[in-house]
Amino acid sequence: MNSSIIGRKLPTSGMLVLLAAITLAGCSAGPAKPVSQTELLLGTTITITVYDRVDRSVLDKAFARVRDIHNRMTTEGTESEVDKINQQAGIAPVPVTPDVFEVIKTALDFSRLTDGAFDITVGPIVKLWGIGTDHEQLPPPEKIKALLPLVNWKWVRLNQADHSVYLEKKGMGIDLGGIAKGYAADEAKRILAENGVKHAILDFGGNILVMGTKPDGSNWRIGIQTPFKTRGSYLGIVTTADKSVVTSGPYERYFIKNGTMYHHIINPKTGYPVQRHLTSTTIYSGVSMICDGLSTSIFVMGLQDGSALIRELKGVDAIFVTDENKVYYTKGLDGIFEVTNSDYTRGELPSGPSPDYHAPAPSVIDTIEALDKVSP
Ligand code: ADP
Ligand code: MG
Fold first, then answer.
1. Cβ(114) – ligand 1 distance below 6 Å
2. What ranges do the domains of the chain cover?
3. Measured from the CB, is residue 126 less than 6 Å from ligand 1?
4. What pLDDT sits at residue 376?
5. Digit-coded pLDDT (tens) for 201-229
6. Ligand 1 mean position to 177 CA, how many Å?
7. Minimum-distance ligand to the CA of 265?
8. Percent of the chain having pLDDT more than 90?
9. How far apart are CA 76 and CA 318, in angstroms?
10. pLDDT tens per residue, range 177-199
């Protein structure tokens, strides 16, 4: 690592939220003894805890599914389906499994919804920065300038007939890091449900999904991490059942150089990490993939336009935390989310979007809301 890079990474938020959830949930564990399994997949620590009297093998089945998804979508090696799509950019369409096809399709819906704030074609830029890897760097501006013309979600061509994906320009690349964990959590949940699980916590490193209620019938309590604080510290609690809660934030992967923090959420229009006054964004909905994609999206969009977008989506709510320790959240979280850390105070959401805001077409909103309805 470059010696002028002085930032030190903190543990990722997922563990923290899990511990908070378990600590808080654990006080009233039901009759069955919880069983839990942890694996490193999708670039994070994944823990699934089941509170029903079921065979332990259900955990293996859920993890086998997650491992499949990891193997198809990772860009850590060179062999995944996503790697193949990227290697064939500008050359030929690549037929892929329904997993990869559907996730890319949804990612493009998020791009449409957010006017390109969410854009999986940031791949080459993400690779250039290398944030969170052993070769992270502040790239020379001309290198960013050279890659930026390759970032455009409109150049991802999907062919439903043969389930193929084609990137239209040579050098393009997609990165599913902003959406894959959510999809994997939804799929793990489906497998668990099919195998008789009714009460569980799925922690996919900052992506939390709870199944049912706690075994005693009360709601789960999910801690929202205090940004830049070590695990175990949370600023507020979401009390709920059968929902997903996903937080995105710069504190998960970043470095500091010359007093500026560079992190892993990229503004696709500039090629630089998003520089705003936000320290985290959280989405609350029934579908983890929606939570994952949109928490990254609203981090890019910022408080004003991000909250304007979330207000348009039924069944989706958001929490924004700023570097002045203000916490903003949308109406659906009233009575569900509570700020518990006295260093933080609630702020009032802006009443409308900025003049630059591009409202999504009603058909795009319908598409996203439909995802919620087909959730397992
Ligand atoms: P985490 O992976 O830490 O949970 P996020 O869900 O917020 O965080 O996703 C960040 C990841 O998404 C980055 O590491 C990168 O792979 C990818 N990414 C970065 N910027 C964007 C963007 N504007 N749109 C889509 N994906 C992005
Ligand atoms: Mg995300």
1. no
2. 1-376
3. yes
4. 52
5. 999 988 999 999 999 999 999 999 999 88
6. 5
7. 1
8. 83
9. 30
10. 999 999 999 999 999 999 999 99
Residues of the chain with pLDDT under 50: 1-30
Does the domain formed by 1-376 have CATH 3.40.50.970? no
**The model's pTM:** 0.93
Q: Return the amino acid letter for 148.
A: L
**What's the CA gap between 8 and 225, in Å, rounded?**
18
Q: What is the pLDDT, as a whole number, of residue 70? A: 98
CA 302–ligand 1 middle distance (angstroms): 15
